[in-house]
Every structure is written in structure tokens, then in C-alpha cells.
UniProtKB/TrEMBL annotation:
InterPro entries: AAA+_ATPase, ABC_transporter-like_ATP-bd, P-loop_NTPase. Keywords: ATP-binding, Nucleotide-binding. This is Sulfate-transporting ATPase. Residues 7-236 form the ABC transporter domain. The keyword Oxidoreductase does not apply. It holds the Pfam family ABC_tran. The keyword Zinc-finger does not apply. GO terms for molecular function: ATP binding; ATP hydrolysis activity. It comes from Haliscomenobacter hydrossis (strain ATCC 27775 / DSM 1100 / LMG 10767 / O). Coiled coil: none annotated. Transmembrane segments: none annotated.
Amino acid sequence: MNRNIVISTDKLTKRFGDFVATNEITFDVYEGEIFGFLGANGAGKTTAMRMLCGLSIPSSGKATIAGFDVYKETEKIKANIGYMSQKFSLYEDLTVQENIRFFGGIYGLSDQKIKSKSDELIQQLGLEKERGKLVGSLPLGWKQKLAFSVAIFHEPKIVFLDEPTGGVDPVTRRQFWDLIYDASDRGITIFVTTHYMDEAEYCNRISMMVDGYIKALDTPTKLKQQFSAETMDAVFFELARGAKRKAD
């Protein structure tokens, strides 16, 4: 991880009437960093992510994403990021090959580039026999890996992962993190929300959002040193409880 800043926020705030969803959040994220963004339902992390992706204009504060201003250059932001949600953002009634071709076109890649990169991607994922199958027929773990690979198909500077491993087993989650590490090694910055304690441990740094505020931000090791084990366990219990309420 180098020290080039690719995400920078300064007192970034979003209000909905009298309700403050994110309250003066300030942090930097570095190129190639795996940055964990933690918070229970209603903590403000989804609102924050929407602002960072150029999908929602802040009420006040400053932020730049890949060097572009969140107020004036939202289209340039969108061209330089990838995004993957818990729903995987794939079209289940299209084949593996058709999904890759579709998203490659959305990202503005040439037909020749799409063909060469899609062949390489399918081989890398071991989906040669499945390239003509509908995505809806694939096991959950394969959908997950394909969705992530599609999200970084255009080699974005940053990829935002919104609870990408919900509902999959621990082994599949660990395999998914191997893909994240590989992308990070190639210089892609990973901004990921998660409710899982073990996944927080995989991040270079993690932030904890509570009621719209960032209450803590540091490496997993330093946060453990800063807070007692009981406090950390309580925080992650609340995160897990929030995830369960969302699933219900």
C-alpha cells in the first residue's frame, strides 16, 4: 500500500430535513488500501457510500474521489470506480459471457478489449464450462466471484463493496477475500462494508460509524489495543444484530 490519497473527506455531512444521516465525517483512504467501513443499520454508512460514489450530493463538507469533486464531477467519479452490492448486481437471465460483455460495454471498453479480457477472466475464475450458462443457475459463491470480477473489469481506481459476503459460507468468504487481496496488490483501493469481525481483521484499517459519526478509525491491531476486548465484542455484537434485522 502506498500513501497516495484516493478518497478524502472533510466534515462530509448529509441531512434529510432535520435528520443528520452522516455528521462531519473526516478520513482519507490510500491507493491499494483495504478500508473497512463498519456500522449497524442506520449508522449512516450507506448514505456515506452513496455520496462517495457520486450518487448523492452532500449537504456540506468536502470530498474528492480519485481526485474528483463529489459536487462537480460525479460523472468522472462514476467512470473511475467499481461497485458491488450484496445482491451482486448481475443479470440472472443473461449468461456469464453476456454479463461480462454487457458490463464491459457499460464501462466503455472496446469490443476487442472485452473479448480478450473476458476470455482471461473466465479462465481465471474456472468458468470455462459455465460461460454459456445463465447466471441465475450458478451457485452463490460463483455469482459472488463473478460480480466482483465484473466490478473491477475496467480496472477502476477504487471499488466499493457493500456487504458483499452476506449469506455465503465461511470458506467461500475466505476465497472471496483472496480476490480482494489480488485486486489490492494491483493498486485497486477496496472500500468495503461488513458485519463480520474476521473480515474486519483482513482490512488494513477500519472505521466504526455510530449514529452518523465516525467513532473510531485505525488498524484492527491498534483498535484492539485502544479498546477493551469487551468493548470490541459489544460493538461487533451490535453490528451483527443490525445485519440480522436487515436480513429479517
